[in-house]
Amino acid sequence: MLQAIHSQGEAGDWLVIRGVHATDNAVASLSNQPLSHAAVLDPERGVVIEAEGVGVHETPIADFVAKSRRLLLIKPEAATAATRPAAIARARGLVGKGYDFLGLAGVNVRDRYYCTELALTIYPLTRGSDPLPAVVPPGQLWHWGTIAFDSGPVSTPRE
Fold first, then answer.
1. Which site in 60, 110, 116, 125 is 20 to 30 Å from 13, CA atoms measured?
2. Helix, strand, coil share (%) of the chain residues, nearest 5
3. Do residues 121 and 12 lie in contact, with contact meaning Cβ atoms separated by under 8 Å?
4. Would you give the end-to-end CA distance of the chain in angstroms?
5. Is the overall model pTM greater than 0.85, yes or no?
6. Element (H, E) at 19
7. Which of 97, 141, 149 is nearest to 120 (CA)?
8. Shortest CA distance to 59 belongs to which of 69, 46, 44?
9. What is the pLDDT of residues 81-140, one digit of tens each?
10. For the domain that residue 71 is a member of, what is the CATH number?
11. Parent domain of 27
């Protein structure tokens, strides 16, 4: 997984995982999706920017991979050479913001983010004339991008 991220990942790409924690089990079950968490890749700093219960924060890429039973590297459709710098700057600027617990139910709280809300917020995304849904589970982020790498399910986290 780490090799794919380092060879194919770019600033602002999305990493979507099936995590190993109890909360990952809950998200996967409630969303009826095989994936449970998303983050924004910041390879320049060697981190991902993610939103968890503690809020929006940075995690070393290797630590993020270590908590993954499956990993997708998604290239956002809005990611271009022109939009990536602004997107990663926006993600970095959100570090320290709170976690949006109500966002998972479609009641978004200003200046708080859940994982996919964070990923989608950094780009100006649309689906033609369709607005984005109120809640986007991690397993649906591929609708706004292209899957560049899929590790497939693994029984234990690996690099």
1. 110
2. 35, 30, 40
3. no
4. 5
5. yes
6. strand 14-19
7. 141
8. 46
9. 999 999 999 999 999 999 998 777 777 778 899 999 999 999 976 555 566 777 888 988
10. 3.90.1720.10
11. 2-150
Q: Looking at the domain assignment, is residue 158 inside a domain?
A: no
Cα-Cα-Cα-Cα dihedral of 37, 144, 34, 87, to 10°? Answer: -10
Which of 94, 79, 68, 77 lies closest to 158, judged by CA? 68
What pLDDT score was predicted for residue 66?
93
Q: How far is CA 104 from the centre of its chain?
A: 14
60 inside domain: yes
Task: Quickly list H helices, the chain.
Answer: 2-8, 22-31, 61-66, 84-94, 115-121
The span from the CA of 58 to the CA of 47, in Å, is 6
100 in a structural domain = yes
* Number of structural domains found in the chain: 1
Per DSSP, what are the bridge partners of residue 10?
A: none
